[in-house]
Every structure is written in C-alpha cells, then in structure tokens.
Amino acid sequence: MSRIWTKLGGWVFFVLVVMPELALAAGGGPVAPMVIVADTRNLTGLMKWWADLYNHSYVWFTVLTVVLIPVIGVIMGTLADIVMTHIGIDLKSRELAEH
C-alpha cells in the first residue's frame, strides 16, 4: 500500500511542479505584456460608452456592472410578473395539479 501512495505522490508532484515548468520552457524569450481592450470602432451610443468605460477604468466598470446587474434583474422580474399576471398565470397561490 505504501508503494502505491509513493507512486501517486510522485505523479502529483510531477503534475503540480514539473509540468508548469515544461510549459514555461516552451516560450522561448521574453514575453510582451498583454493589454486587453474592447474594440470600439463599430460601436455607437450606450455600447460605445460602456466599452470606453471598460477601456479607461476597470474599477468604475466593475462597480457599475455589480450594481446594474441586480437592478436590471429586479426590473425584468417585476415586468415578467406583471405580464404573467395579465395573461392569467397566477404565481401568488400554488395549487398542485398532481393528486
């Protein structure tokens, strides 16, 4: 049993320590820093503003995204509830169809 754990430990060591070194060795020279930006060439209006915000300030982009996603979710959920109520789907009372 000890031999199995030794082999397993050796493979875990190889995968966690040696494999990343092999991947880094394949590079072949200094790597230029990568800059990730949004392409704003064909955008207009709100989409252009949003992409420009992403390009200029990651902090404000993150803050607005974190705030706007729940707000939009609540608005869309409320609108869906109103539409379903108008077409006759009652989500307030629960009555099971199975007996």
The helix/strand class is: mainly alpha
Total domain modules: 1
CA-atom Rg in angstroms: 27 Å
- Our measurement of the CA-to-CA distance between the termini, rounded to an integer number of angstroms, reads 55 Å
Spans of at least 5 consecutive residues whose pLDDT stays below 50 are: none
Provide the residue-averaged pLDDT. Answer: 84
Order of helices and strands: HHH
Report the biggest beta sheet as strand number plus sense, adding barrel if it closes: none
Given the structure, what is the number of helices? 3
How much beta, percentage-wise?
Answer: under 5%
Helical residue percent band = 55-70%
Shape: flat
Number of strands: 0
What does this molecule look like?
By secondary structure, this protein is mainly α. It has one domain. The chain has 3 helices and no strands. The chain starts with a helix and ends in a 13-residue tail after the last helix. The mean pLDDT is 84.
Topology readout:
Elements: H1 2-25, H2 45-56, H3 58-86
In short:
By secondary structure, the protein is an all-alpha fold. The protein has helices at 2-25, 45-56, 58-86.
Question: Can you give keywords for this protein?
Answer:
mainly alpha
